[in-house]
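User: I'm writing a tutorial on reading structure tokens. Could you give me a worked example: one chain, its sequence, then its tokens, then a sentence or two explaining what the tokens reveal?
Assistant: Sure. Here is the example chain.
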Amino acid sequence: MNPPNLLPRQAHRLLQLGIALLLFTSFEGFAVPYLAAPHLGRSVHTLSGLSAILMVALGLVWSRLELGVGSSRIAFWFLVNSDLATILAFVLAALWGAGSSTMPLAAGPAHGSAIQEGLIAAVIYSAAPTGIVSFGLMLWGLRHAPSVRA
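And here are its predicted structure tokens:
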């Protein structure tokens, strides 16, 4: 891929992901009452909506980043991984009626088997470092003010 086209292409993918998440959250809202843990289903609904708006906003900003090919790929894929892993962990918890060991405020009394709780923890804990690295790279990519053209 031609490096000058990389940031605009990634920006477009983030916009697509944001709109896909809006579609997902629209349909997921209908399933909330039927999940093993409906309060976690509501959390998935809210989290997916927030993530959708975040992806759209970052997609609009992405082309302004001053990052090289390698760092823009890391920032992009780490962002996508962090976002989708967080949503996946909440979806699994809502489906299984689990998650109290990892997300006690959201899950409340919903407690699954040791394997379920361990899988949810592994998925959600994988999201934090990748998100931090991605946001750090984005901040670095925005280190210069845009040039003013007369």
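What the tokens reveal: The CA atoms of residues 104 and 134 lie 26 Å apart. Residues 3-141 form one domain.
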